[in-house]
Amino acid sequence: MNEKTVMSHSKYVFLVALAIAGVVSLIVSDISYLIGMIVGYIVSLIVFKMIIKMSDLILALSTSTISLVVVLFFAKLFVYGAGFFIAIKVSWINIITVFLGYFIIQATIYIDAYRNDRLEKTQNS
């Protein structure tokens, strides 16, 4: 599983999460749940791309990587914080669904790993 697979499969997980947030938005008549999920997913995509770039940079540079890792880690935290800050300041973005949107990439990785494991077990049996 590589980053391109995760990125393409995350779209399907996002659509399922967006559908659930859409149903909740319809039930409570508040669009903020839907917009919060979109904002959370966009932030998680940005952070995932930062992780990919950070890994490539660390592998390319063999010296003084500790300080670089710390700086890039704080950059990731800043992006997550910016997503929360926007959700707090803007009333039409729900902070809970922003938080749940942050986990779409991680959920995609777990789902793909589970599916690959099940596929291997079926092929070996």
Sum this structure up briefly.
This protein is mainly α and 125 residues long. The chain is built from 5 helices and no strands.
Account of the 3D structure:
This protein is mostly helical. It is 86% helix and 0% strand. The protein is built from 5 helices and no strands. Helix 1 runs antiparallel to helix 2. The chain is flat and about 50 Å long. The mean pLDDT is 91.
Q: Any descriptors?
A:
single chain; 125 residues; mainly alpha
Chain-wise SSE layout:
Elements: H1 3-28, H2 32-60, H3 65-89, H4 95-101, H5 104-124
Helix pairs in contact: 1-2, 1-5, 2-3, 2-4
Low-confidence stretches: none
**Strand residue percentage:** under 5%
Helix content: over 70%
SSE pattern: HHHHH
